[in-house]
């Protein structure tokens, strides 16, 4: 069977301070329970301006203007030590400001659910006309906008407002009178996931000169559910994204597994390509409004900015073997099975050690592990520690237990085979996949030969199981040989000759 | 005597650290321990 390759990657962030205030669940729950709280009062003064978000080192890593290792030389908290980089566009993608994104939500809405105010529509159209990936046709789709009185009237009926710069600039209407799965809140969440997914998809295509007509399948792996009261998670975000980016020859489907979904999707995409079912598969996800400002209370308590102020998105292209791009070893996957157990040892064994053992590899034979790449600037002040570092320590500890490394080598192992985290805490977004863009360079132009991408998911949050989940996959430097499925290899030739000889011998004996 | 002997426990595990189920398994070995509540939370 052929191998699939990791061809290209795109990454986007969207700076959405007003969404933090009005749609992040930490804030909406606080508003419902304690509307006069000090936290809500302090929110505005802890939200960062767009310029600061662009200069924030982890964000510049996310869009590819810096490499993860650069973070090691910047003193933490990184939010107090901004870079000099003032470019919202990067090698892998971009950081989009909130007003442009509201315009993109309007463009992504095909059911006329999004209403935006006239003067705001005009200014957004002007800004987006300078965007390299938004077409004239898309800008026309924004329309002329609506009167603010009409929007205020819709909001008074319970529809979700859209804010920019502390003012109401629009709203998202409910898509059904009584269906809770189509109410304005759900439609807003889903349209945000769609629009940020579209932005990631567009950046993947534009930054890598991909022929959009060559894409034949899309797998979407965000954490939202779209459907109506008869099928709450019916889907299919994937096909809606393909439609929005004009991938006319593509169809697709959604994969859900909480934060582990991107790795499950990567495994599925590589298998679909390797089996010959599809030639070019895009794995894509947009961001989650609910998780914005999730740790905001701790950030405010420690007088830090609210660092969870961006939506994340990514898109990667998995294609047939081109003899150059890194090979996705869909035969070397790790998975946390139902019977695997929940101890850290059992989890690391199933996700990391099992695929290594399958190929007689040691933990040191993987140049870089990409685990849960959450930005520690966000998680440490909230008491959740440095998540990537803890994962690397656990992998190293298993290496010590197996005799792959000496106990004294553990700190060096963590540094050499690990990376500092840089991804926003958007659930599925930090889950292994932020490194894929860098992996392409490291496994082609760089000196690495093998990486492992690992994701975990908290399935228990859905209350269908107490299990959590995880998956991993190895990606390797391409040896430059392209398999020919029609060619007869040595083993099959020997088998064929042996069979013919056996038949001949039987015939001779019979005579 | 174990420090948890005769205690009632509330267990909050961490998906990226020690899950609640794993802690629960460990305390099963101790007599006179009652687990009142056990859960695993996701902090990211």
What overall form of chain A do the CA principal axes indicate? globular
What structural category characterises the helix and strand content of chain A?
alpha/beta
User: How does CATH name the architecture of chain A?
Assistant: 3-Layer(aba) Sandwich
Structural class, judged by helices and strands of chain B? alpha+beta
**Residues in helix, % of chain A:** 25-40%
- Main sheet of chain A, how many strands, which sense, barrel? 10 strands, mixed
**What is the topology, as strand order, of the major beta sheet of chain B?**
1-2
- Low-confidence stretches of chain B are none
What are the SSEs and their pairings?
The complex is a heterodimer of chains A (511) and B (44).
Chain A: E1 4-15, H1 17-23, H2 25-33, H3 38-42, H4 50-55, H5 57-62, E2 93-96, H6 98-108, E3 114-116, H7 118-128, H8 136-142, H9 148-156, E4 160-164, E5 167-172, H10 184-207, E6 217-220, H11 237-244, E7 251-254, H12 261-274, E8 280-285, H13 296-301, E9 310-320, E10 327-335, H14 344-358, E11 368-370, H15 376-379, H16 387-402, H17 410-417, H18 436-442, E12 450-457, E13 469-476, H19 490-510
Parallel strand pairs in A: 1-2, 6-7, 6-8, 11-12
Antiparallel strand pairs in A: 1-9, 1-10, 3-5, 4-5, 8-9, 10-13, 12-13
Chain B: E1 8-14, H1 20-27, E2 34-41
Parallel strand pairs in B: 1-2
């Amino acid at each position: 069977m052929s191998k699939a390759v990791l061809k290209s990657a795109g990454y986007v962030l969207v700076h959405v301070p007003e969404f933090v205030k009005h749609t992040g669940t930490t804030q909406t729950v606080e508003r419902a329970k304690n509307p006069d709280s000090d936290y809500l009062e302090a929110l505005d003064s802890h939200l960062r301006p767009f310029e600061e978000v662009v200069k924030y080192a982890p964000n510049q890593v996310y869009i590819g203007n810096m490499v993860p290792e650069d973070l090691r030389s910047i003193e933490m908290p990184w939010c107090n030590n901004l870079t000099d980089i003032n470019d919202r566009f990067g090698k892998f993608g971009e950081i989009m400001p909130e007003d442009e994104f509201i315009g993109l939500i309007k463009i992504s809405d095909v059911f006329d659910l999004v209403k935006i105010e006239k003067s705001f529509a005009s200014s957004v159209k002007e800004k987006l006309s300078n965007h390299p990936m938004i077409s004239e046709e898309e800008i026309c789709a924004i329309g002329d906008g609506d009167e603010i009185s009409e929007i205020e009237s819709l909001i008074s009926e319970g529809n979700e407002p859209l804010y920019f710069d502390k003012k109401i600039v629009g709203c998202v209407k409910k898509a059904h009178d009584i269906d809770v799965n189509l109410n304005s809140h759900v439609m807003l969440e889903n349209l945000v996931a769609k629009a940020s997914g579209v932005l990631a998809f567009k950046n993947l295509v534009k930054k890598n000169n991909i022929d959009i007509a060559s894409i034949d399948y899309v797998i979407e792996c965000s954490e939202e559910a779209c459907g109506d009261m008869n099928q709450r998670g019916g889907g299919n975000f994937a096909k809606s994204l393909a439609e929005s980016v004009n991938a006319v020859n593509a169809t697709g489907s959604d994969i859900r597994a909480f934060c582990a979904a991107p790795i499950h999707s990567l495994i599925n995409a590589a298998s679909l390509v390797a089996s010959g079912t599809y030639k070019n598969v895009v794995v894509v996800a947009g961001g989650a409004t609910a998780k914005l400002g999730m740790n905001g209370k701790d950030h405010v308590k420690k007088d830090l900015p609210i660092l969870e102020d961006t939506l994340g998105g990514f898109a990667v292209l998995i294609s047939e073997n081109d003899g150059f791009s890194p090979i996705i070893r869909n035969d070397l996957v790790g998975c946390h099975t139902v019977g695997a157990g929940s101890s850290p040892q059992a989890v690391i064994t199933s996700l990391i050690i099992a695929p290594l053992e399958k190929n007689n590899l040691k933990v040191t034979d993987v140049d870089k592990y990409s685990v849960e790449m959450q930005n520690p600037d966000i998680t440490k002040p909230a008491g959740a520690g440095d998540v990537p570092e803890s994962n690397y320590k656990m992998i190293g500890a298993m290496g010590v237990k197996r005799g792959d490394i000496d106990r004294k080598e553990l700190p060096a192992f963590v540094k050499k085979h690990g990376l500092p985290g840089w991804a926003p805490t958007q659930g599925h977004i930090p889950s292994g996949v932020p490194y894929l863009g860098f992996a392409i360079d490291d496994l082609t132009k760089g000196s690495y030969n093998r990486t492992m991408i690992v994701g975990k998911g908290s399935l228990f949050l859905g209350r269908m199981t107490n299990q959590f989940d995880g998956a991993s996959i190895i990606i390797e430097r391409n040896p430059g040989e392209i398999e020919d499925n029609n060619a007869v290899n040595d083993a099959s030739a020997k088998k064929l000759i042996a069979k013919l000889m056996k038949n001949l011998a039987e015939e001779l004996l019979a005579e | 005597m174990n420090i948890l002997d005769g205690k009632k426990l509330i267990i909050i595990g961490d998906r990226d650290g020690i899950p609640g189920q794993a802690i629960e398994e460990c305390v099963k070995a101790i007599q006179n321990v009652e687990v009142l509540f056990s859960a695993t939370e996701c902090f990211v």
